[in-house]
Amino acid sequence: MQEKNTSLFRHELFESRQNQWLGSIQLSQPISAALVVALSVALGTLAIIYIAFGTITKKAHVSGITTPAQGIINVTSKISGIISHIHATEGQEVSEGDLLFDISSDRHTSLGDVSLMLNQQFSVRQESLEKELYIKELQMKEKKQSLKLRLKNLDLEDQNLTQELKILESRRNLANLTENKYSLLEKNGFISSTQTQEKKEISLDLASKEMAMKRSKQQLQSSKIALEEEISSISSIFEMESSQIRRAIAGIKQEIIENQDKLKNLSNATKSGVISNIMIKPGQSVSAGQLLASIVPFAACSQVSGGKNLQCQPNKNIDLEVHLYASSKATGFVTPGQTVMLRYQAYPYQKFGLRKGTVVDVSSTPFAPNELPANMASTILSYHRAKDQNPSIEEALYRIRVKIDVEGTHFHETSFHLKPGMVVDADIIQDNRRIWEWILEPAIAMSKRI
């Protein structure tokens, strides 16, 4: 009799599970040989085309910062004193000559402000010299007027002598004629010699008077010349003395101006631009040469067409350029005109993209760390260390100036303007080559050497 199965599962189920360790049945379907060959040919063709026509770009990876093309102007204090008033604010546009800061002198003694007392003394000296100059001028005018009056009298006397000399000359001529007539009558026996002698004495007396009058006229002429020379010398002496006094007055005025400048120094903008980095507050003490603020200058001008000529109109934009600093290893093949791809740290390139620039020039000599711009040195060196470029303390860096094609970046129709001091990563495109040229470069170089 057949034995009854009391299990919940069939016997075949257990047998099938006992054979599972042998694995399942797999039906192999090999790939067609033609398909393998076709794929291999296609891949080989693509590789050859890529090697033949593909290019590799050689780049120099450097870093730097944005900086105004016109530079940054530092406003410093000329004197030691106290900031009494600040006329500018951060970011304010200023024009050349605009007043920025008032600095008052802090020189005081028990008698009062030193500068004020000096100004008072200078004013007293100036007033005394001006009074002396006025008195000398009056004396010179009075003496000159007196001499001119004497000269005028001499002129009148000279004119009178001239008239008298003409009359005397006429009388002498008449006396000579009379003497000649008497001499002729004496020869003919009409008169005595005594009468002739009398007429001769009259002629000699008139001749003597004429000679004396001529001597007087010569003396008068000499006196006139002496007076004219004295008048001229008075003017020269006065000019010399007045020049000395005026120089002394000018020196005092200069001392007053310098002392006034020390009393209250006015710091003005030396160039038009935008105020930045105001370092002080009202009431703060400053020393001579201390940095007060910086000015980022505007662009020089914009060229606009005005007929046949180009005209220059004011431009209130701030021109920025990128100064890249790199070691000699990175700058070996950098030349002006090369294209630069810029990545601003403030605007990640993954989101805002890259910006183009052009190399303007490369410094002929490197900058030592202590020769880098004072307001940028720490940023440049710290960033180089952070990028593991590892410039040592003694390592010098070359400066690469880059002109930015577009001074800004855009995202979703929003414009973001660049600011001075932004850190920039840059790739300088130095060379484009075919892949096959790059592969065969060692062989080509060796053949050239041979």
Automatic annotation (TrEMBL):
Protein keywords: Coiled coil, Membrane, Transmembrane, Transmembrane helix
Coiled-coil segments on the chain, per record: 137-171
Keyword hit for Protease: no
SUPFAM superfamilies reported for this sequence: HlyD-like secretion proteins (SSF111369)
Keyword Nucleotide-binding part of the UniProt annotation: no
Matching InterPro entries: MFP
Bilayer-spanning residue ranges: 31-53
Entry protein name: Membrane fusion protein
The organism's taxonomic lineage, starting at the top: Bacteria, Pseudomonadati, Pseudomonadota, Betaproteobacteria, Burkholderiales
